[in-house]
From TrEMBL:
This is ADP-dependent (S)-NAD(P)H-hydrate dehydratase. It comes from Gracilibacillus halophilus YIM-C55.5. Keywords: ATP-binding, Isomerase, Lyase, Metal-binding, Multifunctional enzyme, NAD, NADP, Nucleotide-binding, Potassium. PROSITE patterns: YJEF_C_2, YJEF_C_3, YJEF_N. It catalyses: (6R)-NADHX = (6S)-NADHX; (6S)-NADPHX + ADP = AMP + phosphate + NADPH + H(+); (6R)-NADPHX = (6S)-NADPHX; (6S)-NADHX + ADP = AMP + phosphate + NADH + H(+).
Amino acid sequence: MENAGRHMAEKISERVSLDQHITIVIGGGNNGGDGFVIARCLKEKGYQHHACQLVPDQKIKGDALYHKQVYEQFGGMIERVETLDQLKEKCASSDVVVDAVLGIGITGTIREPLRRMIEVINEAEAVVFSVDIPSGLPANENEVVDMSVNADYTFVVEAPKQSAFVEGLAPYYGEWEVVSIGIPLAAFSDQKQMRWQHMDVQRTFPKRTSFSHKGSHGKGAVVGGQLSMPGSVALTARAALRSGAGLLTVATVKDNIPVVANQCVEAMYHVWRDDQGILIDDSVSSLNHYDAIAIGMGMGRADESQKLTLRIVNEINRPVIVDADGLYHIKSDLEVVRARLAPLVITPHLGEMAMLTETTIAEIKQAPFSITKQFAQKYQVYVVLKGKFTIITTPRGEQVVTDTGNPGLAKGGSGDVLSGVILAFMMQHNERLPAIANACYLHGLTADMSITSGRHTETDLLASDVIDELSVAFRTIV
Ligand SMILES: NC(=O)C1=CN([C@@H]2O[C@H](COP(=O)(O)OP(=O)(O)OC[C@H]3O[C@@H](n4cnc5c(N)ncnc54)[C@H](O)[C@@H]3O)[C@@H](O)[C@H]2O)[C@@H](O)CC1
Ligand SMILES: [K+]
């Protein structure tokens, strides 16, 4: 509690000047205890502040009581705020409100008077900093908001909670950052979600040695692209090559090859048998010569392509990435997926995930962590649930989130590019989770940097621009 409060006071002082007035609103649990520590540290730094206790004295116990007493011994004055009017007055005379009313220990609907006090905090003009979580907000997904502080900033203790990554709940946090208190993450039994960050990419990204040759970086294959969709495989192939794949073969219908080859001269080509431009079930075993295969992009949903996809999933004992139309094909027989032993990565967006799990987009948005985890464990697949927050789940149920990327990626072709980066990284990393997480992180970072650099806007950014800009993001990690 001392560490948490001290670090948060430090963060607050970086954003608030000494002439600004701060009110710390304090509740009855350990979240309130953090509030007492913050009050003492801000006093120590010379801030004008009020520490307002919103609950009766008997509610302050344990560590929180200890820190209340330390604050008082330090000359701090605690004001007991009982009415809404008293709170309104405090908030009105403050530039900043530090919200240490409720943390992750809430149960049930928010009781009065705190319920209406939260409304008062939200009506105030002051900037609101929440301690650990906006008071009243559930920590986990799949819960409804009864009443919550709408924070401008939140200092999350040690590990982000699920609600920070759930569309309907995340906005309550405002901007947020993790405050480390020196407790290993494993100590938080119910908080295993991890934000995959730049330092994780740096830590896990493989180095190319001076003795590398094209064979050291993997031979990949991209299978897809019916006659009407040559661009999809071209994007995947180019993204894989730009992401370091040693050798890459595009397996597509004959008439597409000149078009794709024109955009991707570094690739090799496998003429896949077709029936009027549709890929059909043929020469599947030839794919065992590759180190990893991506399938489904631009493939179309014809029965023949479905047979082909299921045979690849069933017979190829190399890592396979299934995207786009391939996801519809595997849905027709998920038992084939379950029976498969070699790694399978699926990369659905919300709509595709709803289709695979026979739920709705709204249900997935409400409980993205548990729905994907259930699916990944049941079918023993890696799931990349794409969205504002991309959730990556392993067959064992581990989950990480990447939060790079912007609405400029919400366009046709983005998924094809991501699949290409995943394909290349699966061949270069020893471990699957870092390979996939690094791909998602860097794909999003590329889009972000294309915009912050001024070269593109969210409106004009194309999937092919992201491929061309990958080097900008890669340069940040080598
Ligand atoms: N996990 C850890 O190891 C650490 C936790 N810390 C802090 O401790 C917090 C969790 O502490 P607690 O478990 O004491 O819980 P909280 O501080 O979230 O809240 C418990 C208090 O809220 C009241 N309450 C619960 N449900 C309510 C409802 N529906 N309506 C009105 N009042 C309600 C309870 O009566 C109790 O007084 C974290 O959010 C964080 O701020 C930090 O001190 C650092 C270390
Ligand atoms: K809080």
